[in-house]
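Running log. JK asked me to keep both predictions on one page so they can be read side by side. First protein, sequence followed by its tokens:
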Amino acid sequence: MNVRALFLIVLTFAFAAQAAEQGGTLGKIRKTGVITMGYIEGATPFSFRGEAGQPQGYSVDLCREVASGIRAQLGLKNLETRWVALTIQNRLEAVKKKQVDIECSTTTWTLTRQADVDFSLITFVDGGSILVRADTEAGRISDFGGKRIAVITGTTTDKVLRATLARRSIKAEVVNVTTREAGLKLLESGKVDGFASDRIVLIGVVLTAQGKGAYKLLDEDFSIEPYALAIPRGDADFRLAVNRVLARLYRSGDIDKIYSQWLGKLGPPSLLLSAAFFVQGIPE
């Protein structure tokens, strides 16, 4: 055996030993054989409870790909995925306290949130909009002076909506709700004039609503919402493992299958989203 071959063998064993001693989230996953994923039950089409009681949606499928990829990276024969139902209000706290390893819904990546949790590569790009009844004359946010707008408390939409109204001197009343269903119910009953959230989430709310109301979206967005998977802060190895999977999906074009299944009815990816996939197809 020559010196080069011996060096390669030693190097291989060194990497194997390092992986075996790996701590953090990956070390826990290796030790327990379980990855814990959080999801929101009412964030169609990104994250919701399906008819069989199992999590489904665009973000959920991305997380399933992540679980499969991490199993392969760790060389595990089997890896159990344990799902935990979260709410919009407690999802980031669950990640921060490490009650879940990764959160799979419609979380917007912001610098303020990154002080508490970390984020994967961007998984989707959306914009904040306002849902109104079809018979209303409002077409832009400037038409909401003197009107009432419902928004879910604790979301980036809540913060940005208030800032937009203040910056543009629009005197509208913001009404906080805790769920998308509650916001739509207020709009349907006429107790508010609009319901603000991410544009594609509002589409999902209408498509799955039990009521028979007719609605439309404003002609403008008031924010940009980059979605990403929330993960524990300060765990570089786990973040790299997650991003390896996402970058492969973007690089190979396999992301198109997931997009088509859950979002294809809404048309092809926007130019902005397509650019995000292309730029984030980072080489291995």
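And the second, directly underneath as requested:
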Amino acid sequence: MTPVLIKSSDAMDELVTQLKKEKLIAVDTEFQRETTYYPRLALVQIATDSIVACIDPLAFNARLALQKILLDPDITKIFHSCSQDLEVLFYYLGAIPAPVYDTQIANALLTEHHQIGYAALVENELNVQLDKSQTRTNWLQRPLTEKQIQYAGDDVFYLYQLEQKLDEQLHIKGRKSWFEEESANLPNDEKCFQVTPDSLWKRVKGATRLNRNQLAIVQSIAVWREKLAQENDKIRKNILADDTITQLALTPPEDISSLHQFVDRRHNISNEEKQKLFDVITTARQSPAEQCPDNRFDTLGAQEKILLKKLQHMVNEKADELGISSAILCSRKDLEKLILLPDEPDQAQLPGLANSQNWRYRCLGQFLINAVKNAK
């Protein structure tokens, strides 16, 4: 199907009238964020069984019209691996589209492919090989080429067909309830797209090799950098590179003039911000040990490692039986948390396996809990 490029409010209004009649639409976005903190929306593609439209938000203000469709609770939006699309649309629309049907999740509950890519899924399920030539294209360039428009349109055209096929398989296997449980965990709050300030040090490459006092400096600088990146809509490294942050933590400046060997003119940081940076470093150096970030982690003892292997074997066997990936059933990290619980584990302590109505708990949860209890 040849996609229609929507470049005006009048054309968009006609599309909205058509889409308002639908209960199900496929959605995809094209965006770029290589040089900016916030993603820049370049294109929104929408498809039904009879429409494929590519909406150009750079040609006109499409916000209000898209809100009418993408925020309509009576229209289910089909995505593939939706988290980035939802983030982009959240910043553009001011709210998160819902309800959502994610074909990557549906496929993960049917096959051993936990995080399959869109092109591979289309080929597996529809026997169609997608053109990948525009994967790295500049979606902010104008005018868009016919090849770009067709590529973008294909993403949603086949996505609509995938939903029908996968949903039928979920019903046949009795796993639609599993899918609904997984869908309930999709981003549904703006906090999902906000960085947690207390853990910003973890985003600094090379920080984990530092001691706790040095991490306090890294954390303070990372918070300062994050605020500046948001205010200036720049990626973090264009404010201050990770290796510069770790150098400042290893050899913190004794005075403001010493800071200049780390932060010079090429960083384009005002004197006021340099002073703030020096102040946060000075304050961080005085942090009590108990307030410093903790990069220590619990390690399993010899017997606990034996138990971990036993639990992993149980997970792998059940995953093979179900025909799904062990990663979606229960991760190694979740098993380690289960083993390291200080008291005998019970449902209240296991968010991933706790609810007796949860599909993971019904499949495996109680067996894992019993195995850990018997080993303690």
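Observation for JK regarding the second prediction: Strands lie at 4-6, 24-32, 40-47, 52-55, 76-79, 100-102.
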